Amino acid sequence: MAGAAALAVSSSAFSLSSCGNSKKDCCKGNECCTRSLNISFQEGLTPGETLKEKLDFMESLGVTGFEPGGRGLADRVDEIKNALEGRPIKVSAICAGFQGFILAEDPAVKKLFDTSMREIIVAAGKLGATGVIMVPAFNGQEPCKPHTQATRDYLCEQLHDLGEFAVENGTTVILEPLNRGECFYLRLVADAAAIARDSDSKGVKCMGDFWHMKEETSDYGAFWSAGTEYLQHVHIASRGRRKTPGEDGELDNYVDGFRALKQMGYDKYVSFECGMLGDPKEVLTAAVALLRKQWEEA
Ligand code: MG
Asked: What is the tens place of the pLDDT at every residue in 46-57?
């Protein structure tokens, strides 16, 4: 029985590899294993006229996650479910798409957030998404509650309720730290993880975006500060101009972050959120190969 159980774990979350390479192997009990890299593409950047064409392209590259936007998602549940049927691709996270924002002082704007966010959470649950990505407040969103201790407490209370609603619907809400130019309120993975912890709900998680992680002093430390308890998603782009990984040459090194993901046994997705300079099919194909190579090196 133990062998069968171990095999079941191995086939779902790990790919077996030979023992003895301590750099690449992680050990769970007596298992020697290597975490696989689960790559996801956002819908908007994937080449193709139709959803079918986009998914065909993703499948040809072995991409296993699909990240749609949240706007209008409630009306697309059947369309997306049908398109994914029979494919080795699942919905990864849902990228925002709500209206208003959680720290709005104007009750009408806050209500708009509450209503639209919950509608997306329900749809995300139906699609089996890992969560719905959100930011507490972008720099330009006014009127915004001031940045005080009381505001942080309020944020955690509100997130608690939202997280519990997400759990009821089989999904989560995922706090995304951004760089200071977009959201001074939440810049570091560790801070997002701490807010998730203080929100005291299994439905509140966080993520890291390699583009915004220029704020961090260490990719490795940033991911570990969230750990598997809170890290629910990862975004990736080139590190100079936010294009596809590899289009900024030597800058596009993700090994340090990947090493943390492998060591912690991260089993969610690394999802492309980026523009592109070259031919989409060519640069995306090259980017996937680059990430797989760096994952091996990590
Ligand atoms: Mg992002």
From this structure: 999 999 999 999
